[in-house]
Amino acid sequence: MTDAYERMMKANQANWDARTPVHLASRFYGIEEEPDPSRWFAPWEWDDLGEVSGRDVLHLQCHLGTETIAFAQRGARTVGLDFSAESVTAATGIAARAGLDVTYVQANVYDAVEALGGRRFDVVYTGKGALCYLPDLDRWAGVVAGLLRPGGRLYVAEFHPLLNSLGPKPAPGEGPELLLRHDYLGGSGPVHRDATHTYTDGPAVEGATDSYEWMHGLGEVVSALTGAGLDIRRLRESPELPWPRWPHMTRAASGWWRLPEPRIPLLYGLLASR
């Protein structure tokens, strides 16, 4: 990885350390309430994942572990990994309060094989805002392959690159129209953000406000995984999100949120195996 990428990823690490207390205080995550990790999962994710009870499951880039604990609730031997020490500390406390046995490890995702002592897993899970913080998907796919047992499965439930290209919210003075703000395809370098507020309703971020995101089209994701020797088993595109990103979204029968027609993909689910 280049020195520039190393610097940007360290900036992201500091930013997520600073975001953690903001997210802990937010209604968006609702940490002070009874944890309900099921609300972060589409039903089709569990259909694709299959039975996880008794399996070794690793959640990469897990942040507060609000999704990680769902695997422990379903009987999996669960590990979460994140590069933010503040997030790992918070996630450990959240799992303990829920009475769940989850191991959390603080490490950069690119160092996951070494950080986990060469341990292999039946399932590696990642997504919902994770891949955009990785500059090199080929290297990431190689790490995933090194973390999976033969026959193991990767599941990526990630924001669709079309959603990411629309940007987080309208600029001041703009209406509700959805406008393309960033490339759909990767390769043109990172998007730099300097924001005092995150995607939650929490207070302002104090300290490290700079972050960098990289665009990755679906073709890049698929090619990286197949290049690492994984087989693509299923790819879904969904028009729903677990929260209303735009004010004019309406609640669907699933309990998640969707835009008025015409429908566009907002989330995708990708199942691959080693």
UniProtKB/TrEMBL annotation:
InterPro entries: Methyltransf_12. It comes from the Bacteria. Residues 58-154 form the Methyltransferase type domain. One of its GO terms (molecular function) is methyltransferase activity. GO terms for biological process: methylation. This is Class I SAM-dependent methyltransferase. It comes from Streptomyces niphimycinicus. CDD domains: AdoMet_MTases (cd02440). Keywords: Methyltransferase, Transferase. Pfam families: Methyltransf_12.
